[in-house]
Amino acid sequence: MGILLGVGRALADVAIIKVQADAPGRSIGPDLVGVFFEDINYAADGGLYAELIQNRSFEYQATEQKTWNPLSYWDVQTPGGGRASLDGEAAAPLNANNPHYAVLEVSEPGQGVGLANPGFDGIRVEAGGRYRVSLFARQLYVGNRWGGSAHAGHPAPLTARLESKSGQVLGEVALGAPGWEWTRLTNTITATQSEAAARFVLVVTNRGGMALDEVSLFPENTFRGRPNGLRPDLAQAIADLHPKFIRFPGGCVAHGNGLGNLYRWKDTIGPVEERHQQANLWGYHQSVGLGYFEYFQFCEDIRAKPLPVVAAGVCCQNSGHTGGTGQEGLPLAAMPAYVQDILDLIEWANGPATSAWGAKRAAAGHPEPFHLQYLGVGNEDAQTEVFRTRFKMIYEAVKAQHPEITVIGTVGPFPDGPDYDAGWQFANELHVPMVDEHYYEKPEWFWDHLNRYDGYDRSWSQVYLGEYAAHDAGRANTLRSALAEAAHLTALERNGDVVRLASYAPLLAKQGRTQWRPDLIYFDNQQVLRTVNYFVQQLFSLNQGDVCLPTTCSGVPAGARLAISSVSERRSGDLIMKLVNGQATLQPVRVSLAGVNNVGSEAIQTVLTGDPAAVNDFNQPLRVEPVTSRLKVGPVFDCELPAHSLTVLRVKTR
Ligand code: AHR
């Protein structure tokens, strides 16, 4: 049978690919492709978490950003000759976890004194959209503070409104009047017009003073309609990846900037106004409104397994910008309680609703267990004795009490070096089931390390490649970087018995608030941008398969930038090939499928290709996107891999 080649193309150019479909092959973990969520680049507040008010709890601090204080992002408006002052106080808070609040004193209401908040770079409002206002208020006095009339008059009702930049009212509701103790006031604004960057204004029309806290504006339209839920378009972009798991809360956020900044899951559940907020080591604030419950709920909603990562009783070694020497461990006397917190997390996730922590999950509206299977302990930690002692305490307790949980250890920040070596040795000594490898390297590195796992000792711990990304010039999300990741993913599939899980990192980045590039998804308040790298992750996730079939490639020079994997998918009976051509020339291939009886006559072919330097951006969001067509196939068939491309072929074999 002749090979379909372009005129004048030499036969020697053809890559001969042989797939042995009836050979046993290597299993691919059912959860290979997942996502890594970290609150970096405003991924949570101002991002995935749908809250629209910035600094709703008046807890911003100068320790987070030099110019911040509890009143940041709040402004007093005094139209019509109004006079008012705004102060931050802490004397009689809503609760101990929410220590600061605002005091608004109106000496002359004019046309109504407004307390305004711009949200996170403006509040996106949609005509007809419903926005739930909720706040806590406490009247301090009515009338003139110094006029002896405190508690004498009646508190007046407040009004909440949405306004355009020019002051046009886009929707407004009455909230009722505060009491003399903290009172929750709520109502819902229906927006009459759309606006890209509106502001929220709380309007006071009488003289007096009042304390305000936890001022929230929440769209009713959240992902799957969940209360205190997620921004739907962003959540959908993540759901469309069909991730098999979601890692949370990081990354460095998991082990924090100093021991006081460890991410503690118990601080992130329960009523939002009672959660213990804290600084984010990426230079901003964590409201923890998107906490453990919301995270587990999201996992369930998109059928991804939760993969929480808890600190190993030590903080990040870069704490305080110490360049790797800032690791500290919790005092050993505090470790039993810390270990218990981790055991409680497992009970909260999986225990019956009658158990102490399962009851808290049930009280939050989820009596059924969440089926936690994976638990990461530590993140990129320096492999010191301080770390080892605390990791061992946690690991042994979880193993003893919850042998069903797969504990994932950590082997430092890099793909090799002293922490990597020491981490592996320690993991093997303890027989930790899996370890978390990280690498951010150049695209060439990914191509040069396609054999990385071929020689891994199969009796050792398995691998979760928890953070990786190809960093191209200028850290741009180029097609070249995405193809390097695709090539590497073929190698992960080929070593699916060793590498059980993998997640690109980081996942989300807000335009203008991005500390780290590249990321998988960029967004602003209006749009969500899927990078080329996103499409690679999506294609591998949707076409993962269960068994990697032995596949050989010949006829091309050694070192040619070609990477191929062939997998079978039990569910459909399909044979799926991923073929990555990292070369600047088209690559003809001839594929022979050995050991398949019923090869369909057509394959679904999806190709991602373009200029290697091409990126998707907000001006041209789909400059590079997958294009699907049909390809005639049989037991032997030919196809062409465009220069700089990923091709996914889905062949029916039933
Ligand atoms: O993904 C961004 C950061 O990179 C993570 O927080 C950290 O674990 C890694 O160094």
Properties at a glance:
single chain, 654 residues, disordered N terminus, binds alpha-L-arabinofuranose, 10 helices, 7-stranded antiparallel β-sheet, alpha/beta, 8-stranded parallel beta barrel, 35 strands
The helix-and-strand class reads alpha/beta
| Strand content range | 25-35%
Q: Fraction of residues in helices?
A: 10-25%
Number of helices: 10
Major β-sheet annotation: 8 strands, parallel, barrel
> What is the radius of gyration computed over CA atoms, rounded to a whole number of angstroms?
28 Å
Strand order of the largest sheet: 3-15-18-19-20-21-22-23
Low-confidence stretches: 1-12
Instruction: Write out the distinct hetero groups bound to the structure.
Output: alpha-L-arabinofuranose
Query: What is the strand tally?
Result: 35
End-to-end distance, in Å? 24 Å
User: Given the C-alpha coordinates, what overall shape results?
Assistant: globular
What's the mean pLDDT score? 96
Which helices and strands occur, and which strands form pairs?
Elements: E1 15-20, E2 26-27, E3 33-36, E4 75-77, E5 83-89, E6 101-108, E7 113-117, E8 123-125, E9 130-142, E10 158-163, E11 169-176, E12 183-190, E13 195-204, E14 208-219, H1 232-239, E15 245-248, H2 252-255, E16 278-280, E17 284-286, H3 292-301, E18 305-310, H4 335-350, H5 356-363, E19 374-377, H6 385-401, E20 406-410, H7 418-430, E21 434-441, H8 443-448, E22 462-470, H9 479-494, E23 499-504, E24 508-510, E25 521-523, E26 528-530, H10 532-542, E27 547-548, E28 551-554, E29 562-568, E30 575-581, E31 587-594, E32 602-609, E33 627-632, E34 636-641, E35 645-651
Parallel strand pairs: 1-31, 3-15, 3-23, 15-18, 18-19, 19-20, 20-21, 21-22, 22-23, 24-25
Antiparallel strand pairs: 1-28, 2-27, 4-7, 5-6, 6-14, 7-13, 8-13, 9-12, 9-14, 10-11, 10-13, 16-17, 25-26, 27-29, 29-30, 30-35, 31-34, 32-33, 32-35
Helix pairs in contact: 4-5, 4-6, 9-10
Bound molecules: alpha-L-arabinofuranose.
Alpha-L-arabinofuranose (AHR) binds next to loops.
